[in-house]
Amino acid sequence: MRRILFALVPTVVLLVIATVAIAGTPPLTTISTRVYVTPGSGGQHTKFRLRFRIPDATGMSGLFRRTDLLSVSGPSRAGCISRTSVTLRSAQAGARLQMTLNPSGLGGRWCVGTFHGQIVENEQVICQRLRACPDIAVAPRTIARFKFRVTRSPAGKPTGTQTTGPRFGGLLSATTCIVATPQIVSPGHSYLLTWHPATDPVTPSSGLVYEIYMAATPGAEDYSSPTWTTTAGLTSFTTPPITVAAPPYFVVRARDVAGLHDDNTVERTGVDDCG
């Protein structure tokens, strides 16, 4: 009887270790994430840019490895790209990720039609030598769905600039007029931003939009998410009232109908013309 008891002790210990390892794994949240696709529709050579937040931390945690798989699929035809998938890098919960689906890097051009995408969260047990390995399985969980449309360009011409974005000299000036009036409490100050029109091999200047990025300190602009986006064809923009202790910093970039933008980093500080 004692031999039986002694034989059971290691098994019980291993089960306790496995239980602790499972309990130490952060639980999956029920929050899904929204994927922003730019542009929502493009041609067979368009680069589609995706932006989203990761709801749950990925990577190793105890005996578990959590990964996110992003995949897209569309109409299946010969001679074009109908599907692709990629495992996302490990990230902390709430981290903002972005990626570009570039058909030239995938071997050609998109098939024409609507593409449906999803991000699936997977979790697996990583068994290590001389450690307990729980006999459990975690079902994959879809945390996001998105789509974009690929259209055939008229007369066989590609939509957008494919691999070459707009040419743009960047922001020229950012000015405001601050008049000291003790009787009036100002809610903030608007800034007038001006620039020369950008050019693009395919999209006319009247069809280009401009993405505006604002930061409180030099070089701190978040290029994954513009602060404002203009309507097409503008060469100036007046911001909403801005309340900051010091003059803000601005960068403006041009974007064409294919979703490609220039990468200039010309930064201008807000200037008080009435000071």
Stated plainly, the CATH topology of the largest domain is called: Immunoglobulin-like
Rg for CA atoms: 26 Å
Oligomer: single chain
Shape: flat
Distance between the termini: 94 Å
User: Helix-strand pattern, N to C?
Assistant: HEEEEEEEEEEEEEEEEE
CATH architecture of the largest domain: Sandwich
Query: What is the CATH H-level superfamily of the largest domain?
Result: Macroglobulin (MG2) domain
Tell me what portion of residues adopts beta-strand conformation: 25-35%
As for the number of domains, it is 2
Give the biggest beta sheet.
Answer: 6 strands, mixed
> Under the CATH scheme, which class of the largest domain?
Mainly Beta
Mean pLDDT: 81
- Percent range of helical residues: under 10%
The class by helix and strand makeup works out as mainly beta
Which regions have little confidence, pLDDT < 50, spanning 5+ residues?
Answer: 4-30, 154-162
For the secondary structure, the number of strands is 17
Number of helical regions: 1
